[in-house]
């Protein structure tokens, strides 16, 4: 009995679909954000908020010592500057509400 035709049929009908499905699964799982990624993003967000608060404090201290000082960055107390931040906080609250 010749094994070459049997091996060719096995390779075509079992081997190729297995390889294709394997890489499709790898591709789909690589494109999603994992829970570890979400935790890291939340930690980075909270760190950015803390640093922003520190910058506000430093700018207030410098402005109190130097009346000519005008900060060039976004201000914490202006509604225009806080709009993207408020939107992000709303989205995070919705996501946390969906998780619970």
Automatic annotation (TrEMBL):
The chain crosses the membrane at residues 6-24. Signal peptide: none annotated. GO terms for biological process: phage shock; regulation of DNA-templated transcription. Pfam families: PspB. Keywords: Membrane, Transmembrane, Transmembrane helix. The keyword Transmembrane applies. This is Envelope stress response membrane protein PspB. It comes from Tsuneonella suprasediminis. The gene is pspB.
């Amino acid at each position: 009995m010749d094994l070459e035709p049997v091996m060719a049929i096995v390779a075509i009908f079992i081997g190729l679909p297995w390889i294709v499905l394997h890489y499709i699964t790898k591709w789909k799982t690589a494109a999603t954000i994992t829970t570890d990624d979400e935790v890291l993003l939340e930690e980075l967000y909270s760190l950015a908020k803390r640093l922003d608060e520190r910058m506000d404090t430093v700018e207030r201290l410098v402005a109190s010592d130097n009346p000519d000082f005008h900060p060039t960055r976004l201000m914490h107390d202006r509604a225009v500057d806080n709009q993207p931040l408020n939107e992000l906080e709303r989205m995070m609250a919705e996501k946390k509400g969906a998780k619970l």
